[in-house]
């Protein structure tokens, strides 16, 4: 294409009345590029498990098994075949929805993972549902009353929240909420969240995990809202005669949501790490605890499955964040 | 008849960090004792170099001074009502309804994530409560049509990035006119636009002024725009008004050396008078303003007395004031230092 034609095309694209098709194309593109990433996750997860200095056959056979039994088991499990061959077999197995069986208790990995996904999502959702609104509200209020006592207190709180490790918050929560006040259960899950016991058991873990997120989101919100408040279009909004509060909410916060959503999306990666610690402290039957238990007991198929699910969750979250940006920012929507 | 806008002895200051770098703050004056008068339906152009306090003055009228700045003394009378002493809530009720403002850069002055219609509707809703969505929308479209936005009914849902610079400035104008203000402040409304679009926007402002009878305070450094638009002109330098006169007097019979210098800087106007000249030197920094007349270090016609006392405005005609010891100027006064 000549340079001139390209310019002409660009202009046509910009002024296209069928803007909706561009957006659909973007969504399709964004979903499509997720596929190679997921494939990459598969490859890396598979290879990681190959380099772990642990013999799956030995784990399955148990500590008392003789060398011949282990060797026979290796042959039976296909561990003597070449690496690409084994990866191909693994893929074929995956395509059938089969993630293998646990080396420890022979339970299907998919079933175990399926059992852990629910509680994990419950914990994650509860954590996001309380911490993000609270953090955004605090950050916005700090920006609205910048340099006041409230602002300083909120900034101190957020630095504190971001600096304290999650296990410490968890222990503190157990100590205060569980021992001291004896209000809330702190071991295990009492049931699904719609039951009373389930909801009660969710409070402390969700509080602990949300605390990790709180500090970072408060600070990005404060910065982003302050930034937006000093922009030209906010001056225009003030010139219309809007109150400072509605200028802050309708104009500054609305625009600040774009960087906030990006940050929260990235933080969800850290949150998965935080969830591992939280689930262990509170004996929460989720993915994180499952993964750690599988790794410490050398249950490779289980660990591989858990890693796959966690990585896929991360990739899908990023996809969701990007699609959410489309709703928030008309400039990428075209 | 009382004028629509009358500014009396306005001083604004901004806070600057103290010289010791500690917590103590000093204040420096930006607008230093400005008196201006604007009658209903007229256009007053405020001219001067960057940093002379034009924008600060306009923001002071709107009550939109940045947090570091404040009005130290003086009155801003809108129809007899002193805006400088109004509480914030009362000022908000006036802002956008009786006094509206458009800004220099239409690219950044509109909120990128809200449709232009929503932004215009918001301007109406603040001051005209009780309209339902449909009525608001109809009014927004009507306002856009008034600002000569072609195909307004379709563009009401457009986002700012989908519009050209000229259209965005028209949206800004529509937003400003939505509540029928008596005074429109236009802060360099055409500086960021293409030359051809500039002419269209100026023409639009003039037409709208004729239709609605609003007064226009036009802030600019472009003397071409002044010649095109203004009834009256105030020339500002370093926070003070140097000369104020009807537009014809400013161009035909300037009575302040600074005005002469400005005219000498304008290419088309300087063409006949020989070479285009710049005024030597620059605007002095706020913190170290020279004593006496603030222009005297750069003035080609300065006398020893100019450094001693601030020259008070002298009345040279019915509406012609110049703050210069040498005015009325004799013909031999040079426009700029050689």
UniProtKB/TrEMBL annotation, chain A:
The chain crosses the membrane at residues 27-49, 123-144, 156-181, 193-218, 256-282, 302-328. Keywords: Cell membrane, Membrane, Transmembrane, Transmembrane helix, Transport. CDD domains: TM_PBP2 (cd06261). It is found in: Cell membrane. GO terms for molecular function: dipeptide transmembrane transporter activity. Signal peptide: none annotated. One of its GO terms (cellular component) is plasma membrane. The keyword Membrane applies. The keyword Signal does not apply. It is a multi-pass membrane protein. Pfam families: BPD_transp_1, BPD_transp_1_N. Residues 117-325 form the ABC transmembrane type-1 domain. Belongs to the binding-protein-dependent transport system permease family. This is Peptide/nickel transport system permease protein. It comes from Gluconacetobacter liquefaciens (Acetobacter liquefaciens). The lineage of its organism: Bacteria, Pseudomonadati, Pseudomonadota, Alphaproteobacteria, Acetobacterales.
Automatic annotation (TrEMBL), chain B:
SUPFAM superfamilies: P-loop containing nucleoside triphosphate hydrolases. GO terms for molecular function: ATP binding; ATP hydrolysis activity. It is found in: Cell inner membrane. Gene3D superfamilies: P-loop containing nucleotide triphosphate hydrolases. Signal peptide: none annotated. One of its GO terms (cellular component) is plasma membrane. It is a peripheral membrane protein. GO terms for biological process: peptide transport; transmembrane transport. It holds the Pfam family oligo_HPY. Keywords: ATP-binding, Cell membrane, Membrane, Nucleotide-binding, Transport. InterPro entries: AAA+_ATPase (IPR003593), ABC_Ni/Peptide_Import (IPR050388), ABC_transporter-like_ATP-bd (IPR003439), Oligopep_ABC_C (IPR013563), P-loop_NTPase (IPR027417). It comes from the Bacteria. Its main location: membrane. Residues 5-263 form the ABC transporter domain. Belongs to the ABC transporter superfamily. This is ABC transporter ATP-binding protein. It comes from Gluconacetobacter liquefaciens (Acetobacter liquefaciens).
